[in-house]
């Protein structure tokens, strides 16, 4: 949160873009063909490379070739992640609809040899601040692909930078219509997904069945939320899950105004619900305008379908 | 110290140098460069050379490794290097780590630093990978899908409960903002130098996350700050008056999370700062009445009020009135709201200046300063004192302005 320049949209956008740093850009990719002599030979002929080391080893610069799906694409579909698609969609939404590849860097920890089968994944490494180039104004997005062979040994990294930009208007061109405001676009970015790991997966499995599951210690019977592997009261690792009654009250709440996020429509309230079972959880409030939520308000559990794959437990308030 | 019995750290190490870059919105150089400049400035201030340094401490969040800072500063062999986690909660703990190393002879001269381009945010080559979601990520994951997305919103959840519990209005937070900005207005190093605000301006500023307004939220800064720690004996041979580390403590509370400790207690206090406060008071033998100036971490105003209550400067729910009454010199550099957001490290430097008598908003005769680190996260705190009056070792002790010179 900044206090100065809060109205400057580029900062807010940049914060949202930065949030993608470190997220997966592609996962579970496998090379279409094993590293093989014919492809190496074709490459060397095309490049005019007569190095006698080839094709016993592959030219290092072929690295990316082994990860490409070919004209037909990867048989199992793209390894590209939702996060990367979201990032590109977010940039599209703000008018950065054009893309140009700017440069790449590669590292080769060990040479690839015929017979090697490659797998790869990629991470969104960085998103630059807004830059203005001769092409237009936009953001450099750098991804880093890790290419592995055999049992996962790293054989190469491929850092790839694109500029996703709004094309500069030619002189005397008519001014374009203003871009729609974030949050009002036809295709708004999606809400953050729940962070699911092995310690809390059971909760989200319950949500899928429309059950709100709370943990209870099998040694001291203390109920607990959020889900954790051990009991905060006695340290016991033995627990069971049980279904909450779904009734509770608003323990505290906030009204989100700024900055805007595309998946939400401020102002909106977010509440800390105290369930009848005595535990608290953060959730959304339905049925009550944002400015009518109050501490102590009784609430009742319901499930909100957010999009095709996200359903959340939320609480319907009863206005006094 | 432990939570149960006093430690033996107090009075053995001192802060002898402070140095910072300028505080800006776009530093135009790397975070490493900022760190190096801050460390060198702090060493110059201490009258020490890079070759004297054998220890470095920073935040886990810092992007400039100890070895790289050493390499770029001309610091040679290191016998101690350490990092502290939890964002701004690490600030005072870096000095505690340094004092521990100095007191035990593990190192002789330790520099603590923190430098970042928080505002311009040019983090080249950051390559954090998300694989199996960590426990840290999962903890935050309970809030994000519901749209509770920002630090302001996490603080606001507790702030709302605080107002409710004590029957207060959001305007009471303005007292902290006005106090900070009043001090920043007379501090040439402050971003908001010459720009005081009024309670009315606070109350008229726009909502960020109710019940927090724009003027309850701190700025973001590019800059670096470093702090030099050595033994009290060696400090006495150096040019500046030492700021003796009277007590140092870390604290995390039961049911602690990072910014989202929503599931414990009544949400009207900062239990982790209570853990810090209890240790500082017990280790030093001091009480709130002995403190001449307090530098309390202020990324958001409500947590300043809760800190005053955790340290016992006033009763629960009374802190806004306490601040309004100006009973305690508070954040005399302008705080992070007014001077710069340096993850609390600039606050330690201000406490040192107060002990030296060199603050732009000097408290006359200030001999004992309290400084705290990040709130809402596992945190830390320091009591600093002028040489010779760092702790209460006899019944003789004056109220502020009259340091008792008993050893
Ligand atoms: Zn238990």
UniProtKB/TrEMBL annotation, chain A:
Disordered: annotated span: 169-193
Domain ChsH2 C-terminal OB-fold: 243-303
InterPro entries according to UniProt: ChsH2_C, ChsH2_Znr, FAS1-like_DH_region, HotDog_dom_sf, NA-bd_OB-fold, Thioester_dehydratase-like
Domain named ChsH2 rubredoxin-like zinc ribbon: residues: 204-240
Domain FAS1-like dehydratase: 30-156
Name recorded for this polypeptide: DNA-binding protein
Species: Streptomyces antioxidans
The organism's taxonomic lineage, starting at the top: Bacteria, Bacillati, Actinomycetota, Actinomycetes, Kitasatosporales
TrEMBL record, chain B:
Thiolase C-terminal domain residues: 256-377
Domain of life of the source: Bacteria
SUPFAM superfamilies with a match to the protein in the record: Thiolase-like
Database matches in InterPro entries: Thiolase-like (IPR016039), Thiolase_C_2 (IPR055140)
Residue ranges that the Swiss-Prot or TrEMBL entry lists as coiled coil: none
Pfam families from the UniProt entry: Thiolase_C_1
One GO molecular-function entry: acyltransferase activity, transferring groups other than amino-acyl groups
UniProt-recorded name of the protein: Lipid-transfer protein
Top-level taxonomy: Bacteria, Bacillati, Actinomycetota, Actinomycetes, Kitasatosporales
């Amino acid at each position: 949160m900044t206090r100065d320049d809060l109205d400057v949209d580029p900062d807010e956008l940049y914060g949202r873009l930065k949030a993608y740093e470190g997220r997966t850009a592609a996962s579970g990719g496998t090379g279409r063909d094993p590293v093989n002599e014919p492809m190496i030979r074709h490459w060397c002929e095309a490049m005019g490379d007569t190095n006698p080391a080839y094709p016993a080893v592959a030219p290092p610069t072929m690295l990316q070739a082994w990860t490409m799906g070919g004209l037909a694409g990867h048989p199992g579909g793209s390894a590209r992640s939702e996060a990367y698609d979201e990032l590109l969609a977010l940039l599209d939404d703000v008018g950065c609809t054009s893309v140009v590849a700017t440069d790449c860097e590669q590292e080769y920890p060990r040479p690839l040899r015929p017979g090697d089968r490659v797998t790869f994944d990629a991470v969104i490494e960085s998103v630059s601040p807004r830059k203005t180039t001769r092409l237009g104004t936009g953001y450099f997005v750098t991804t880093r692909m890790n290419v592995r062979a055999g049992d996962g040994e790293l054989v190469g990294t491929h850092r790839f930078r694109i500029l996703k930009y709004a094309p500069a208007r030619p002189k005397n061109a008519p001014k374009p219509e203003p871009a729609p405001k974030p949050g009002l676009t036809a295709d708004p970015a999606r809400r953050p997904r729940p962070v699911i790991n092995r310690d809390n997966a059971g909760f989200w499995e319950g949500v899928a069945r429309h059950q709100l599951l709370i943990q209870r210690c099998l040694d001291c019977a203390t109920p607990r939320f959020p889900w954790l592997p051990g009991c905060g009261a006695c340290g016991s690792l033995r627990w069971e899950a049980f279904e909450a009654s779904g009734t509770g009250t608003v323990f505290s709440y906030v009204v989100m105004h700024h900055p805007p996020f595309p998946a939400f429509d401020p102002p909106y309230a977010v509440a800390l619900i105290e369930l009848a079972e005595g535990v608290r959880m953060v959730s959304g409030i339905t049925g009550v305008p944002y400015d009518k939520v109050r501490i102590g308000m009784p609430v009742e559990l319901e499930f909100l379908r957010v999009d095709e794959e996200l359903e959340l437990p939320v609480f319907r308030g009863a206005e006094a | 110290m432990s939570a149960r019995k006093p430690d033996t750290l107090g009075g053995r190490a001192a802060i002898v140098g402070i140095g910072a870059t300028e505080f800006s919105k776009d530093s135009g150089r790397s975070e490493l460069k900022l760190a190096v400049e801050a460390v060198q400035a702090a060493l110059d201030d201490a009258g020490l050379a890079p070759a004297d340094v054998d220890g470095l401490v920073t935040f886990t969040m810092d992007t400039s490794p100890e070895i790289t800072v050493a390499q770029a500063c001309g610091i040679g062999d290191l016998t101690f290097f350490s990092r502290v986690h939890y964002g701004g909660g690490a600030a005072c703990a870096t000095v505690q780590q340094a004092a521990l190393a100095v007191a035990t002879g593990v190192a002789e001269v330790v520099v603590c630093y923190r430098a970042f381009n928080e505002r311009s945010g040019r983090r080249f080559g950051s390559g954090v990978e998300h694989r199996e979601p960590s426990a840290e990520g999962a903890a935050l994951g309970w809030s994000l899908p519901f749209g509770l997305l920002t630090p302001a919103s996490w603080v606001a959840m507790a702030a709302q409960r605080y107002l409710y519990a004590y029957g207060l209005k959001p305007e009471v937070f303005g007292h902290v903002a006005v106090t900070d900005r009043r001090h920043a207005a007379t501090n040439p190093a402050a971003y908001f130098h010459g720009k005081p605000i009024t309670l009315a301006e606070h109350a008229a500023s726009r909502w960020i996350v109710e019940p927090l307004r724009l003027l309850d939220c701190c700025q973001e800064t590019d800059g670096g700050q470093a702090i030099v720690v050595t033994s009290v004996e060696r400090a006495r041979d150096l040019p500046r008056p030492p700021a003796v580390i009277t007590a140092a403590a870390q604290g995390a509370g039961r049911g602690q999370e990072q910014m989202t400790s929503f599931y414990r207690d009544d949400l009207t206090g900062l239990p982790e700062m209570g853990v810090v406060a209890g240790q500082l008071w017990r280790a030093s033998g001091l009480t709130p009445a002995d403190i001449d100036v307090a530098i309390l971490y202020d990324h958001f105003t409500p947590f300043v009020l809760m800190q005053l209550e955790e340290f016992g400067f006033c009763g629960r729910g009374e802190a806004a009135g306490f601040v309004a009454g100006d009973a305690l010199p508070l954040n005399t550099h302008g705080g992070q709201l007014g001077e710069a957001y340096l993850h609390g490290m600039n606050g330690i430097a201000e406490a040192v200046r107060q002990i030296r008598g060199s603050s732009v908003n000097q408290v006359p005769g200030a001999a004992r300063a309290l400084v705290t680190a990040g709130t809402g996260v596992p945190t830390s705190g320091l009591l600093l004192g002028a040489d010779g009056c760092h702790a209460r070792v006899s019944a003789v002790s004056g109220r502020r302005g009259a340091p008792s010179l008993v050893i």
